[in-house]
Amino acid sequence: MLNALKKASAALIACAALGGPASAGGIENVVRLDILDGGLTSRGTYLGAIRLTLADGWKTYWRAPGEAGIPPQFNWTGSRNVGEISITWPSPHVFDQNGLRSIGYQGQMILPVEITPANPGAPVRLKGEMDFGVCKDVCVPGNLDFDHLLDSGAGKNPAIAAAMAQRPYSAREAGVVSASCMLKPTRDGLQVEAHITMPSAGGEEVAVIEPGGPNLWASETLTHRQGNTLIARSELINESGSAFAVDRSEIRITVLGSKHAVDIRGCAAG
């Protein structure tokens, strides 16, 4: 586990170190951020999307980026009339980066965002900033601002609709029969081993385990199949190094296959 942490730290340090010269030329030369309008939903919420458009050959990262990536972070400070914000993450791709597995998007990332206004009927303004990482031959940490007054009269946006359609299947949609998690103490934290009874998602499946706690870190997941059961094993630690508990209902497992991805929320005791 400590070796995994060292790899992750090395990747982040490399990103920071290699980011200097490229950043000096302007992150805008590598990536462009804009906000898409999708109008109002039947529930009275606003639909929009954050779009990152990347230069040829560059990629950016998913919310759980793997040991070699930097997860996107959002600061919504400055936004107006925003109650709740819900982000839909389209199914990502798995990349091999200098022997480390990373998970993300190449060329373009569109994240649909549904906003419940604090004051229904009043305008909604999205203003803030996004921190992210992008990689090609080098890795560059980036930060871009956004400021957009959402258009309540906008029609259906094909780009947002396409991104929504690329979301992972739910457990029910994918035919997941059961998902259980066994927890076992390790020297540095807890080992979690998930047993998921489900049809194949296609090809070489990769499972990603997210522990749910904001200060918990999960190592790269080892995944294999035994018949109808997918077995995924990872190690969890607390960033502070102190003891911790894991709520199985908060564990999130995403299975990435060649046919589709599956989003599994929570697991039973194993």
What topology does this entry show?
Layout: H1 2-24, E1 31-40, E2 46-54, E3 59-66, E4 73-75, E5 82-87, E6 93-97, E7 100-106, E8 108-117, E9 125-135, E10 139-149, H2 158-165, E11 169-170, E12 178-185, E13 190-197, E14 206-210, E15 216-218, E16 222-226, E17 229-238, E18 252-256, E19 261-265, E20 268-269
Parallel strand pairs: 11-19, 12-20
Antiparallel strand pairs: 1-2, 2-8, 3-7, 3-9, 4-9, 5-8, 6-7, 9-10, 12-13, 13-17, 14-18, 15-17, 16-17, 18-19
Give a written overview of the molecule.
Residues 49-146 form the Thiol:disulfide interchange protein DsbD N-terminal domain. Keywords: Signal. InterPro entries: DsbDN. It holds the Pfam family DsbD_N. This is Thiol:disulfide interchange protein DsbD N-terminal domain-containing protein. It is a single chain. By secondary structure, this protein is mainly beta. It has two domains: 2-165, Sandwich (Immunoglobulin-like); 169-269, Sandwich (Immunoglobulin-like), CATH 2.60.40. It is 11% helix and 49% strand. The protein is built from two helices and 20 strands. It has helices at residues 2-24, 158-165; strands at residues 31-40, 46-54, 59-66, 73-75, 82-87, 93-97, 100-106, 108-117, 125-135, 139-149, 169-170, 178-185, 190-197, 206-210, 216-218, 222-226, 229-238, 252-256, 261-265, 268-269. Strands 3, 4, 6, 7, 9 and 10 form a six-stranded antiparallel beta sheet that branches. A hairpin with a 2-residue loop joins strand 6 and strand 7 (100-106). The radius of gyration is 19 Å and the shape is globular. It starts with a helix and ends with a strand.
